[in-house]
Amino acid sequence: VNLDFNDINTIMKGGGVAMIGLGEASEDNRAMEAVNNALNSPLLDVDISIAKGALVNVIGGPDMTVTEAEKVVEEVHNRINPNARIIWGASVDPTIERTIKVMVVITGVRSKQIVGPGTPAPKAEGIDIIS
Fold it and tell me: Looking at 26-72, which runs of residues are DSSP E strands?
């Protein structure tokens, strides 16, 4: 099942601050490794437990099983607000082998590093603004 622009629009509309995560894994437990890589950014400290919605795209080679794709979505569901809306899709890419790729768009997240509507931007210290 492929995802389209309407799915993105549905998740993003009224969702607030959002994050995008990408993960890939080829290990024995590749589904869980890929989703963990997508949800855990080493650069951002993001609280996804309060998320309003999630778009999950799982891509694997011909050896990917439906069960593996479902594990990815179950893990996202376990880590976000249980009332959040999840739209997901999975597709087979015959050019990749023994690998699963996961892309997530999660809306309604909170992070000190991401400023959204209604959140004042942190004041810059030691910076002179010249107009």
Answer: 46-47, 53-60
Structure confidence by residue, pLDDT tens digits, 42-86: 787 899 999 999 999 999 999 999 999 999 999 999 999 999 999
Half-sphere exposure (Cβ direction) of 126: Cα atoms closer than 13 Å: 0
Q: What is the CA radius of gyration of the chain?
A: 17
Distance CA 27, CA 52 (A): 31
| CATH class for the region spanning 5-111 | alpha beta
Domain boundaries, the chain: 5-111
Does the predicted model carry a pTM greater than 0.85?
no
Give the span between the Cα atoms of 96 and 80, in whole angstroms: 29
Residues facing residue 7 across a β-bridge: none
User: CA triplet 109, 6, 13: central angle to 5 degrees?
Assistant: 35
